[in-house]
Amino acid sequence: LAAAPVTIEKLDGDQLWQSPAWDSYDALQYLKGVDLMAQNMTFRSVNLRGFGANNNNRFLQWTDGMDNRSPGLGVGFGNVAGVSELDIASIELQSGAASALYGPDALQGIMLTQTKSPFAHQGLSAYVKAGMNNFGRTDGSAPTPFTDVALRYAQPVGRYFAFKINLQTLHAGE
Q1: How many alpha carbons lie under 13 Å from residue 66 in its C-beta half-sphere?
Q2: What is the pLDDT of residues 21-31, one digit of tens each?
Q3: CA–CA dist 1, 4 (Å, integer)
Q4: What is the pLDDT of residue 65?
Q5: CA angle 140, 144, 150 (to 5 degrees)
Q6: What is the pLDDT of residues 141-165, one digit of tens each?
Q7: What's the CA gap between 112 and 93, in Å, rounded?
Q8: Rounded to whole angstroms, how far apart are CA atoms 103 and 8?
Q9: Backbone angles phi, psi at 18, to 5 degrees
Q10: Which of 4, 37, 47, 160 registers the highest number of CB atoms within 10 A of its CB?
């Protein structure tokens, strides 16, 4: 095994499901050196090494080897355009300069998300999460419900072709 010159923190699918966090991005906060900046319930940006900015444009987010940043803004979408938890095989975080491997935009690190292969993870899977939020508000409004429903279906078609479908809806608020 080759030793990496940087610290790599990794969450696999089982660790995500065993985490007390309500989604995969919230589970990242339990890793060493990770700071999540929460703009709202569905948009959290990952920061490493103390760079606490909402638009961390020197931190790459790749999903299955593809850049997951806004083309116009050049910053990561966080979990707004992320992968459903049902389809995450693993998430690796490399803090520090990863420029030698991933280019100059990886100055503060990279988050590599791998999704499940439809060849290895076949069939139908789903989850339903529900709860209440906004307890203890000072404006006198009542707590509001939230629901998160996801569905994943994957099937090989022959030896070299497979497909997967992921659907997810999140409702929170009034």
Answers
A1: 9
A2: 878 878 888 88
A3: 9
A4: 86
A5: 165
A6: 788 888 999 999 999 999 999 999 9
A7: 6
A8: 18
A9: -90, -10
A10: 47
